[in-house]
């Protein structure tokens, strides 16, 4: 009964979050594409993709493992344990973010032979946002684990793109020319405000304390659990972003911007996928405390919701995608074919994502990593072959084929592990991978 009430409230919250969030994010991308040149818009999307993937990397899976590890401390109102968890991964994220910033700076110098930040790619500017992205991710996961979905999702799904849209429109009205660094710096300021607000909410709700924290016990075992989750998430993000990097290398400059418009349009499916999984993951973490057989009900319940949502969204985007693309500009219609392949690929992966999460939470994350690496290599090879002759459509075909392969391999792995699993199986009976 309590689960049903949570799911109803959570479904309503996330439905509003997904729909409004997509519209607001789309408005931001439209305002940005019309304020910047097509080339600069493409640069922004490449830089944003870079910051996103690095934000996942520096946490070493802390955000992914949070619902599983924090289920018991949050239930027992052990705020010191939660604080210890956040501090542990927060320190790691800050240290690795600094290393990435230095590497990005030095890489730019080697390429450009200039120490001036103005001469570097937008990657350098946006690297300053990586620790904030990471901290926001870990705090959101704590709120999500505590079933406070509105506080976890609304700031990032709605407030962030809405605030960025307002800033872009204000800059366009006040300045003769808006530069890319203006947008990035404004975004970093907004990130800092949201992270500070979420931290305040956690303290106000008495879910977290940063004073006299309880240090994380058995840190190597925790990292042995979290890092495979991070690797699988990293590979998933890399697959979705590899096209932008390879188009930057192999295609015309303006094509990156056109492709970014198609990616933004198709992005509603991954947003819905992530939001639905976020709704069920706290329940899954609690259910796995009692064993896999008990948790399977949550898995299939979430899978049904995910499948229905993805099919409706995919059909809607197929019908309206070309009109949405032209909102960016008439020349963006050239990405229409690419959009269709991206929608199809996103659909393939979305109906598999929950099963992938299950494999990670039940100590089989190594299979997800292997599948992800195979998929990433496949995508890269197909991009290399298809982009020079087919441009952005070739990039989209590559992603579609790669995601279909990932979906097929993941389902086969899931069915195989279920067939060979013992009848009674607890996820807490030993080290990860030896269960």
Automatic annotation (TrEMBL):
It is found in: Cell membrane. Keywords: Cell membrane, Membrane, Transmembrane, Transmembrane helix. It is a multi-pass membrane protein. The chain crosses the membrane at residues 12-32, 44-62, 82-110, 122-142, 154-174, 180-199, 220-239, 259-284, 305-326, 338-355, 367-386, 392-415. The keyword ATP-binding does not apply. Pfam families: Polysacc_synt. InterPro entries: Poly_Biosynth_Transport, Polysacc_synth. This is Oligosaccharide flippase family protein.
